[in-house]
Design brief:
This protein is α/β, with parallel strands linked by helices. The chain has helices at residues 2-9, 11-37, 91-99, 123-133, 151-165, 230-236, 282-295, 309-334, 358-387, 402-430, 446-474, 491-517, 526-537, 539-555, 564-594, 597-614; strands spanning 43-51, 57-65, 74-80, 103-107, 138-148, 172-176, 197-205, 254-259, 262-274, 478-480, 483-485. The strands form two sheets. It has a nine-stranded mixed sheet with strand order 1-2-4-3-5-6-7-9-8, with helices on both faces. Mean pLDDT is 91; it is low at 1-5.
């Protein structure tokens, strides 16, 4: 009995068991996501990469229900994402529409994901449309287009291109969080869309659209009141002057008009949410389903209240956790091998007591607060100039991704400032109170450095292998809302190499701070201590979001709203908050096994680098 108990407590055996469990979690996520996405195998997913008439590569996922055949062609939906993201964010819509019998082509816009790296909004949607129309199992007279945010701009442009080409035309358009074109080149109201059915899904708290902007960018109306604007009235009146609209316009109802012998539908449906949430929102997705099933009947009609999108997102999020668990388990296992045994913690990590004297408390809480303040201030100093870099003439060729560049530089500055705070703490307080930098791992021996780098790279490679397996075998990835672990093409490795130093400059100092300077009993249980550190990691972003959306809810207009950068604040920071809160937990888990803060920092830095580069826009 004692022998069996000793075996079960053997660290190497426990690491093997942890690795097996983590892999099982990942496999569960892959399989469950695939079952949901394919509606239990009734929908086939095809990976598509084609050279289009524009001379560019267009990549996407084609969802084909079994009911779509050459003998009985199905209606189809061309589906695209908004700026800075890729097709994965629209997985809820892709799944729900294909589940109802629509052929769905969810693609990466040019300059995003795996498609060609140029800025050509609208041409990508039109090229996707012509591709879908050419499929023998698609009814080319019943092809609609939908998408989120700036995808609406692509829809409007693609509609114009289709008209000019004179071939198949869009049967319906349904942008989520984007507006129609209201006026012609001379500034007169007109019905650009003829007898094409058009539905607008408008978020009540939209950071970008549904308000009329003054010449200085000032919002003239709250997005929640969009329905009462002149633009909305003209749209509902099918391009007539707003003054001709009779009565009071209403959300969530259909307006019809006979145009060229066809009853044409226009409508504006309001969802009670913020701009970015629409990609996973059952309410917004439900409106799209209802609209399409009305104007372009589904082969397999299902009530819009029956949706699995959020369930799939949660299962995918579990897979993200599984990937990080794989990385931690690989480290736990390999530190018991000859090559990496030098990294195994020789003595247990002991949490320090909470600071008792006022000086110690000031150093602990003051350090957290001043670092958060520095982060807040520098975001508004460096954010606008980097955000406004011209993608053709000013963005660095080694990293043609403005979002990655902005957050990388911001993080690097924060990391360097954190180093300064830790240095001052050690010199004026820690050293006097018995802090030993060699004992807690801040100072490493030469033999540990190469092993640290090697193990970090190997562990991250194992995590990426799991991600690639999900993509190759199940056509799935691991994501939730605006964060994602996804496969990427080889070209992006060079951009990751360019971006990695910036992110490492943040995550390595952060790991040192979390594990060597603030690993104490402040907050009581360890998870509370880590939560405190995680919240302070993300505090500047949390404060920005709180100010932005607190004002939005209270007044109908966000606090920052005039410039493009200001409107982007909310949309870009959600994922950062989640990552920064979780990072200390991952870092501490690795540190407790190795007493090596650099290993944990490198792992976090590399994973965030890969996530950032693989999941945003790039142009050159």
């Amino acid at each position: 009995m004692d022998e069996k108990r000793n075996v079960s407590r053997d660290p190497k055996t426990k690491a093997k068991m942890a690795l097996v469990i983590a892999l099982c979690v990942c496999l569960f996520s892959m399989v469950a996501q695939n079952i949901l996405a394919t509606s239990g195998g009734t929908v086939k997913i095809h990976r598509i990469s084609l050279q289009t008439a524009s001379g560019l590569t267009l990549s996407g996922d084609l969802y084909v229900p079994k009911t779509a055949t050459a003998e009985d062609p199905a209606p189809a939906v061309v589906l695209t994402h908004g700026s800075w993201k890729s097709r994965e964010v629209m997985s809820t819509y892709t799944m729900e529409l294909s589940r109802r019998g629509y052929v769905v082509f969810a693609f990466d816009q040019y300059g995003h994901g795996e498609s060609g790296n140029v800025h050509a909004t609208g041409y990508d949607t039109y090229d996707a449309f012509t591709f879908v129309c050419s499929l023998p199992y698609v009814d080319e007279t019943q092809v609609a287009a939908s998408g989120h945010s700036s995808a609406g701009r692509a829809l409007n442009k693609a509609f114009t291109l289709a008209q000019e080409a004179g071939g198949p035309q869009f049967a319906a358009l349904v942008p989520v969080d984007f507006e129609p074109d209201y006026k012609d080149a001379d500034g007169n109201y007109y019905n650009k869309y003829g007898n094409t059915d058009y539905c607008v899904i408008a978020s009540k708290y939209d950071d970008w659209f549904f308000s009329v902007k003054g010449s200085d960018g000032t919002w003239q109306n709250a997005p929640k009141d969009y329905i009462y604007t002149e633009n909305a009235k003209s749209f509902l009146a099918f391009g007539q002057e707003p003054s001709t609209f009779e009565g009071t316009p209403e959300y969530n109802r259909w307006y019809t008009k006979e145009i060229d012998g066809k009853t044409t539908y226009h409508g504006i449906f309001q969802s009670n949410e913020i701009h970015s949430w629409s990609v996973v929102s059952s309410q917004s997705c439900g409106y799209v389903i209802d609209f399409l099933q009305m104007v372009m009947p589904a082969p397999n009609p299902i009530d819009s209240s029956s949706q699995h999108g959020l369930l799939k997102e949660c299962i995918s999020f579990v897979g993200m956790g599984g990937v990080m668990a794989v990385i931690i388990a690989v480290i736990s296992l390999l530190i018991h091998t000859g090559t990496f045994a030098v990294l195994k913690a020789e003595t247990p990590v002991v949490r320090q007591e909470s600071p008792k004297d006022i000086t110690g408390k000031l150093w602990f809480w003051g350090g957290l607060i001043i670092t958060a303040v520095f982060s807040y201030v520098t975001f508004f100093i460096i954010g606008p100039p980097i955000y406004n870099l011209d993608p053709v003439t000013q963005q660095p060729a080694v990293l043609p991704q403005v979002q990655t560049l902005l957050f990388g530089v911001w993080g690097a500055l924060g990391g360097l400032f954190s180093c300064l705070v830790m240095y001052l703490y050690y010199r004026y307080y820690g050293k006097k109170n018995g802090m030993d930098l060699r004992e807690n791992g801040v100072v490493l021996s030469k033999e540990k450095w190469m092993a640290t780098i090697g193990l970090a790279l190997l562990a991250v490679a194992c995590g990426e292998l799991v991600i690639w397996a999900a993509d190759y075998f199940f056509q799935m990835n691991f994501e939730f809302w605006v964060v994602a672990f996804k496969a990427f093409r080889a070209e992006k490795v060079f951009w990751m190499i360019a971006a990695a130093p910036l992110f490492l400059l943040y995550y390595i100092p952060n790991s040192i701070s979390v594990n060597c300077f603030r690993n104490n009993k402040v907050g009581g249980p360890e998870w509370v201590n880590l939560l405190i550190l995680g919240v302070f990691n993300a505090l500047s972003a949390i404060v920005i979001e709180a100010i932005q959306y607190g004002t939005f809810v209270g007044t109908g207009i966000p606090f920052w709203s005039k410039t493009s950068f200001e409107r982007q604040l909310g949309c870009w920071l959600y994922g950062i908050i989640l990552i920064l809160i979780v990072a200390p937990y991952i870092s501490r888990a690795i540190y407790k096994k190795t007493k090596n803060p650099y290993l944990a920092g490198i792992v976090n830095g590399l994973m965030v680098t890969i996530m950032s580069v693989s999941f945003t826009a790039q142009y050159y």
